[in-house]
């Protein structure tokens, strides 16, 4: 791993940079697992509402089936140098039961409202319990910036 020029950020900087990415990024890799069929990973559009990540997928997709059986999920923003990993439990909302503010914000961000589509969709909300963030080897130590749902001060 090339770490030339890397400067270790303080926890407050990591949190700030993580929040910025959660607000501005569009895709997140979603890892789910089924008790009988094992792991599954897909990229989905996401919205950060300041407390939780909202995603949407077809109601019959593998991701939807998995989170109904096993709600523990891991999310990863798509950058191998500026790593952000989130872990928590998913809550599922059928498209007709999703809170209106979340659905409206999702539609505004992407210009697409699943509630108006043919077929059923499932909104998935995940409030992280653990967040890890690091840029290169100098930041591996101290990469946990949230534990048990609380941001750390480090």
From TrEMBL:
GO terms for cellular component: cytosol. Residues 25-134 form the Pyridoxamine 5'-phosphate oxidase N-terminal domain. PANTHER family: HEME OXYGENASE HI_0854-RELATED (PTHR35176:SF6). Keywords: Oxidoreductase. This is Pyridoxamine 5'-phosphate oxidase. Pfam families: PNPOx_N. It comes from Streptomyces monashensis. GO terms for molecular function: coenzyme F420 binding; oxidoreductase activity, acting on the CH-CH group of donors.
């Amino acid at each position: 791993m090339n770490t030339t020029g890397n400067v270790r950020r303080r926890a407050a900087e990591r949190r700030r940079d993580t929040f910025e990415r959660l607000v501005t990024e569009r895709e997140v890799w979603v890892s789910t697992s089924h008790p009988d069929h094992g792991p599954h990973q897909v990229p989905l559009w996401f919205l950060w509402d300041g407390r939780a990540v909202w995603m949407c997928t077809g109601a019959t997709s593998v991701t939807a089936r998995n989170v109904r059986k096993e709600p523990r999920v891991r999310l990863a923003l798509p950058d191998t140098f500026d790593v952000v990993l989130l872990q928590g439990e998913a809550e599922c909302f059928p498209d007709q039961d999703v809170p209106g503010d979340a659905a409206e914000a999702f539609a505004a961000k992407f210009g697409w409202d699943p509630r108006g589509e043919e077929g059923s969709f499932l909104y998935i909300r995940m409030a992280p319990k653990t967040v890890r963030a690091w840029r290169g080897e100098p930041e591996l130590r101290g990469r946990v910036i949230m534990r048990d749902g609380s941001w750390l001060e480090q």
